[in-house]
Design a protein that fits this description.
The protein has one domain. The strands form 4 sheets. It has a two-stranded antiparallel sheet with strand order 1-2. A two-stranded antiparallel sheet has the order 3-6. Strand 4 and strand 5 form a beta hairpin. The chain is globular, with a radius of gyration of 23 Å. Helix 1 runs parallel beside helix 14 and helix 7 runs antiparallel to helix 8. The protein is built from 14 helices and 8 strands. By secondary structure, the chain is mostly helical.
């Protein structure tokens, strides 16, 4: 294993493991705030219990998210030294703002909320959880603006042999970063909604706290439907942004080898990267790729052969991840619609409850597939069009990277087992009695 491959695998392991916790943190913080707001508005004790119950699961998940996120930032110094030296002036400023502004807001008020149930007035206590939710999602904004800059670098100038910040305004208004933020956070809200639906379904099937979990189910069903529908619309807009900024990624997402005017979309393809063609193409929709990319059925879409081989991303992994993500997205629309239709008496539809319980892992898979598309589809660039990944890696010995990679896998596996055991334990236990 060479240093480049080892460092990429190590960062991928850390990033994908970290993102098992991030989306639930983002969405469950908001849902917990919604439950407490409903308690404040209606005086219904079940909503107070819901805020405590879902808030406890949020706290467990939040702790692992913090721990695994810190190691990611350290890797920019240990494994990606030349990247940090070359673009740290731009990239580092965004991470610094995230840490000093959003993370401290979130971490401070999460303690206020957790310990303040009998110490603060109901309104102030409710405000605390909304500040936690705000901090969590603003933290995601700054991190995704940093990633958005890697996808579409703007607001910089090459000076003294490195990229230096020239326009902070251009960086924070980068349309690609904002589209990425909206797409990612919407996915997090979908994941959290299905988590609440799935856990509620488990208890409704068992006949536990039926009225309590019906209320959680109703709130989550509305949340899931709204954001599942919005994600389809937002995903289309984000795809158009990718077509404009990263044409190689778009071509890999659709396994498009030849440049075509009125490019079709195929429902099913088997790509052959070695022979630079598709072995199988089924379900042709004429002009549809051109329309999705440029809102014009006759627009020209560049194929992969327009670009040098060394500048093309891996096609098969990008293509399959994109197809799976999109397919799951439409499945979420279907399931959330069914949940919304049955929201008033979900206990009378055990078939739906079983499906929702089994569906808890699916949004996690969709989120991970989305990040594979974003990061693998950007290759061979670490900063698109500016710096290649091979030029960013630190001068380490392969043995050093291998040892740390194995250590990450072992430690993260143990942490993951503990976290999911705790989530399962307290989810099954249910809320504290009234």
């Amino acid at each position: 294993m060479d240093v480049l491959l080892g460092s990429r695998l190590q960062f991928a392991v850390a990033a994908m493991f970290h993102f098992l916790f991030v989306p639930l943190t983002l969405g469950l913080s908001v849902l917990t705030a919604v439950f407490e707001t409903l308690y404040l508005k209606t005086g219904d004790e079940d909503y107070k219990r819901a805020a405590k119950f879902w808030g406890k699961l949020f706290l467990i998940n939040f702790a692992l998210g913090v721990v695994t996120g810190i190691t990611l930032e350290f890797q920019f110094g240990t494994n990606w030294r030349y990247y940090s030296e070359y673009v740290g002036d731009v990239f580092g400023s965004l991470l610094a703002i995230e840490a000093t502004l959003a993370f401290f807001l979130e971490s401070t008020f999460i303690a206020v909320w957790h310990f303040g149930w009998n110490r603060l007035s109901p309104k102030l206590h409710c405000l605390a959880i909304w500040l936690v939710a705000l901090g969590s999602n603003v933290s995601a904004l700054w991190i995704l603006l940093a990633n958005g800059w890697m996808q579409n670098p703007v607001g910089y100038v090459i000076r003294n042999g490195r990229a230096e910040l020239e326009s902070f305004w251009a960086v924070v208004t980068n349309s690609f970063g904002w589209m990425e933020f909206i797409h990612t956070v919407t996915g997090a809200f979908i994941l959290s909604s299905f988590f609440v639906l799935g856990v509620s379904a488990y208890h409704l099937l068992k006949g536990n706290e039926v009225e309590f979990f019906k209320k959680s189910f109703r709130v989550a069903a509305v949340f899931a439907l709204v954001f599942s529908l919005f994600e389809v619309f937002n995903g289309h807009l984000h795809g158009s942004e990718v077509a404009k900024v990263q044409p190689t990624k778009l071509a890999a997402m659709e396994s498009l080898w030849e440049t075509k005017k009125g490019a079709p979309m195929y429902l099913f393809i088997i790509p052959d990267e070695k022979n630079e063609r598709n072995l199988v193409e089924i379900g042709k929709i004429p002009g549809f790729l051109s329309f999705l990319a440029y809102h014009d059925f006759s627009a020209t879409v560049k194929g992969l052969k327009e670009f040098p081989k060394e500048d093309r991303p891996p096609v098969l992994l990008t293509f399959l991840s994109f197809r799976l993500m999109v397919g799951l997205g439409f499945l979420f629309v279907l399931l959330s619609t069914l949940a919304w239709l049955k929201r008033n008496e979900p206990e009378k539809s055990p078939w739906l409850l079983r499906i929702l319980l089994l569906s808890i892992p699916l949004p996690y898979i969709a989120c991970e597939m989305g990040w594979i598309v974003a990061e693998v589809g950007r290759q061979p660039w670490i900063v698109y069009g500016l710096m290649k990944t091979k030029d960013a890696v630190s001068p380490l010995a392969p043995s050093q990277v291998l040892i740390s990679l194995v250590a990450f896998i072992v430690v993260y596996t143990a942490l993951g087992i503990i976290d999911f055991w705790l989530l399962t334990k307290y989810a099954k236990k249910g809320p504290d009695r009234a």
